[in-house]
Amino acid sequence: MKALLQRVSAARVEVDGEVVGAIDQGLLVLVGVEPQDTEASADKLLHKLVNYRVFADAEGKMNLSLGAVGGGLLLVSQFTLAADTNSGLRPSFSTAAPPARGEALFDYLVRQARLKHPQVATGRFGANMQVHLVNDGPVTFLLES
Question: Which of 6, 25, 78, 122 is catalytic?
């Protein structure tokens, strides 16, 4: 799994003008699922998301995790993260998981996240989503499990 993690002061996802997920301070995470990914991949990624130290402590150093700051977690499926961009001028999506597999693993990730973290919001799988965010820093990391 690939995840583009962004530390935000606020973020929301809209579908057809309706807000379907929103958080204040926390992490917006765009998630791409690849064919070889499993529930173990999702578990490993979730552990990193909840515990990755990207928030500033009292000295301004990135020493605090999402749980430590009580931030929200906004998970958004994004199959384009799994694209093959190595050749040509058009991405290939043969390296992304098939939609049914991608949705199943994304849903698993969301279910597990809700068991481990009190504030979890999501986009809508497969929808044309408008993602609005205020990237805090900016701080952005690409994680792979």
Answer: 78
78 is annotated as an active-site residue: yes
Which position among 38, 80, 85, 140 bears the catalytic label?
A: 80
104: tokens are 């199943």
Question: Has this prediction a pTM greater than 0.85?
Answer: yes
Give the tens place of pLDDT for each residue, 95-145. 899 999 999 999 999 999 999 999 999 999 999 999 999 999 999 999 998
Write the DSSP string, the chain: -EEEEEEEEEEEEEETTEEEEEESSEEEEEEE--TT--HHHHHHHHHHHHH---EE-TTS-EEE-HHHHT-EEEEEE-GGGG-B-SSSSS-B-TTSPPHHHHHHHHHHHHHHHHHH-S-EEE--TTS-EEEEEEEEEEEEEEEE-
What are phi and psi for residue 39, nearest 5 degrees?
Answer: -60, -35
Catalytic, 140? Answer no
